[in-house]
Amino acid sequence: MSRARWIAPILAALLAVQSAGGAATHVALPSIQESIIIPGGSPLTFKSFDKDAITAHFAGQIQLSGTYYYGNLVYQDASNDKAAYFRPDAASMARLPYFKEHGRPDDIFLSNPAAFERAVVPSGTKMRKSAPYATGHITIIVDQFEASIECDAPNFSARFVSIVTPAPVRMAAMPDTGC
Question: Of 170, 166, 160, 162, which Cα lies nearest the Cα of 134?
């Protein structure tokens, strides 16, 4: 491994040490001219970059309120896999890490949609062609938060842990999303 390749992640980790007083933390991405800002008071802390320094991993759990969408993957392939997307409300968004230049994500991809479905979507819920997503306003806890840039846009994902406040389920179309 080249010296520059292992020094950049170490420097980024050092930059992630939170200062006293709850000030925002800035973490430079070693792979591109960009940084991630972790708001003061956020329960998430920078943990590491992946081996290519493209994805930032965070430690900690965070409670989020917002709207979820559960249904087919936005980028549908032949697998018919299901996906869970979460759109945080303004108060939740204010506590999430974001990119200085690329901004905040439109939604967060939940990495364990089957667990989300079991906890949130009543069995027997039927997806319709005109309304293929189960949706509702909900408060959840997530962990294993990750941030990356894909298609020159911010991309965030997290692992669903549990429900704090359940929501009635309704069927709807997924709002516009994508690259």
Answer: 170
Whose CA is closest to 53, among 31, 33, 71? 31
* Segment 101-107 long-range contacts (CB within 8 Å, at least 24 positions apart): 101/33, 101/34, 101/35, 102/34, 102/149, 102/152, 102/153, 102/154, 103/154, 104/154, 105/153, 105/154, 105/155, 105/156, 106/177, 107/69, 107/156, 107/177
User: Do residues 31 and 39 touch, judged by C-beta distance below 8 A?
Assistant: no
DSSP letter at 40?
Answer: T
Provide the token pair at 163.
Answer: 């429900």
Q: Indicate the helix (H) or strand (E) that contains 143.
A: strand 133-150
β-pairing verdict for 98-99 and 62-72: unpaired
Asked if residues 28 and 56 have their Cβ atoms less than 8 Å apart, the reply is no
pTM comes to: 0.79
- Whose CA is closest to 41, among 106, 89, 94, 98? 94
Q: Which of 1, 8, 158 is nearest to 88 (CA)?
A: 158
**One digit per residue, pLDDT tens: the chain, 179 residues?**
454 444 444 444 444 443 334 789 999 888 788 899 999 999 999 999 887 777 899 999 999 999 999 987 765 555 567 889 999 999 999 999 999 999 887 789 999 999 999 999 887 777 766 677 889 999 999 999 999 988 788 899 999 999 998 888 888 876 665 55
